[in-house]
Amino acid sequence: MESVIGMINEFDTIAAIATAVSNAGIGIIRISGSEAMEILVKIFEPYNKKADVYQLENHRIYYGNIKDGEEVVDECIVLIMKGPHSYTKEDVVEIDCHGGVTVVYKVLNLVLKNGARAAEPGEFTKRAFLNGRIDLSQAEAVMELISAKNRFAIDASLEQLSGKIKNRIQDLRSTLLDEIAYIEAALDDPEHISLEGYTEGLTERVQKIRAAVKKMADSFDNGKVLTEGIRTVIVGKPNAGKSSLLNALSGRQRAIVTEIAGTTRDTLEEQIMLGDLSLILVDTAGIRDTSDVVEKIGVEKAREAAAKADLLIYVADSSRNLDEDDHKIMELLKNKKSIILLNKSDLSSVIQPKDLKAAGVDAPVLWISAANEDGLDALEQTIRDMFEQGMIAGNDEVVITNARQKTCLLNACESLRLAEEGIENGMPEDMLTIDMMDAYTSLGEVIGEEIEEDLVNRIFAKFCMGK
Ligand code: GDP
Fold this sequence. Notes:
Elements: H1 2-7, E1 14-17, E2 26-32, H2 36-43, E3 44-46, E4 61-68, E5 71-81, E6 92-98, H3 101-113, E7 117-118, H4 123-130, H5 136-146, H6 151-161, H7 164-188, H8 198-228, E8 230-236, H9 242-252, E9 258-261, E10 267-274, E11 277-284, H10 285-289, H11 293-307, E12 311-317, H12 324-333, E13 338-343, H13 353-358, E14 365-367, H14 376-387, H15 403-424, H16 429-446, H17 453-461
Parallel strand pairs: 1-7, 8-11, 8-12, 12-13, 13-14
Antiparallel strand pairs: 1-2, 2-6, 3-4, 4-5, 5-6, 9-10, 10-11
The structure holds guanosine-5'-diphosphate.
């Protein structure tokens, strides 16, 4: 697929069905390229005007018939968006026709017969990128927006689409370039520009850039968790109420429960929505057969499950005293995002939150009654507080959710670290600028400024048809 896109002419007029191909109410065919208007004129007859390429005005909607010769194929409305004020910056025409699969294909085929080429997946967005309307991070945001699974994913991709990542990267690059330019200028013209004492302040400035880049790279983990789902493992002794909690959570969710095969054969993952948070409940096969975590799968197994969790929920039966096993499990909670639930709040309790604090666990402790579904709102709020930082729209933080971008940012960090090391070791200035320039290049790759054509093709090939 990639090689095909590489070979095709980037200036062809392209067309594709832009809506889901189903028997929906409306189907949209999108055409982009210099011949979009000519093609339209050949197949479209507006009701009020004789269609003529020169008469159809920009940014107008026309109502009429799509015709194949004398045969009326469909009644439709047509949107005219001449470049550069269009999605691709080229002339774009959208034909909204009746949504039956047959009709939509008939109109598409007619468009192709009259001179357009079938678009490759993502080719419209690729053109928007190649024609400079959006940068690569924005193009990727389009793709992420389409596949967004929840509100956080939508917020993150909309922010990215608005150019937040692009702007931050451009700021960092420009700061870096100023430094490089100064050093280069001084090396070229030592008589007028002095590097005396320059490197002392430089370390600090490079460190500052690196910290900002690292922060962006680190935002990936939190961003990913929110957009993909929080991997949540529920642990606790037999009869503590783990199954009851699972049921209560599944019962509360307002979306369809899906069961997805886990990465290993003996785990099962279930995605549930808790309000607008996605939780991936990770269940080991052992936990499913019997609720006995400690005895059946052992602390060792629980430890394995816990290691790959974003969140551990420890369920304790508050009507029973803590014992050795509780302490063993609580060991797992250290250094992990975790929540302790004192279950069976409807019974008289023999343990209190302070007993858990005394046991050295530093996780929020909440009362719940899984059986009565009490306390679940507070649980939802607690999870939100733990994961939501940096995700609220309008916040200054930049959150990245794309693994490719994270890799570029980490590469930039590494080059900056090498530059710092070079300064420390008294490396000649022209060597420093090599590492700094590498960092500048890696940052450019985030927004697609320094990127190889092959990679561009690979990225856009992952898009869906018509986008
Ligand atoms: P698991 O072994 O940890 O999965 O625990 P279960 O969910 O199977 O629950 C064990 C027992 O405790 C069952 O009889 C439940 O009905 C009961 N149980 C669970 N949650 C509560 C609760 O909040 N209050 C009361 N009174 N009983 C509960």
